Amino acid sequence: YKGNGFIVHSDGGTKLIRTSQHVVKTLAVNVVVPTYFSESCGGKTNARLLFVDADRDLALLQSDGVHRQIEPILLTDEPTRYGNKLFLLTFFDMDEPIVVCPGTFPGEITLHEPNLVEIIRGSYTVKPRSLGAPVITIPSCEAVGVNIDAHVGMKGVVSVRTILAAL
């Protein structure tokens, strides 16, 4: 599997990692997979797939081997609005198979559709394998959701409300 994720809970060496179901779609729940953090955050470790919700395109992994203090990305419950400024915080491929370069890609909210899966459309740039990365609102620097599959040039974010409903 290849994609992004982000820490939503940290308790000592245990980290919970939120990602998109598309990132782990070929994996069974409870499987243990190699997981890579930036070198400053601990490098390579393993994580166990705890939860998958294909309808909402969400997944949750648990890593017990990251002993560096890493602050989780906060999820905002503030309402999103057309025109809100945001950015995609992701790691992307420089050369196969190493993912080494962080990047932020600015954009704004272009459409907001509440449903079972509340999707927020954005205009930020998407790089290959950026599924599962957090989409951050400006100026709060809190996540409005999880980056999901882009369709015909449109970028989508599964909203925080959808994430909370999946729990």
UniProtKB/TrEMBL annotation:
Question: Which Pfam families does this chain map to?
Answer: Trypsin_2
SUPFAM superfamilies found in the cross-reference section: Trypsin-like serine proteases
Q: Which InterPro entries match?
A: Peptidase_S1_PA, Peptidase_S1_PA_chymotrypsin
Q: What is this protein's name? A: Uncharacterized protein
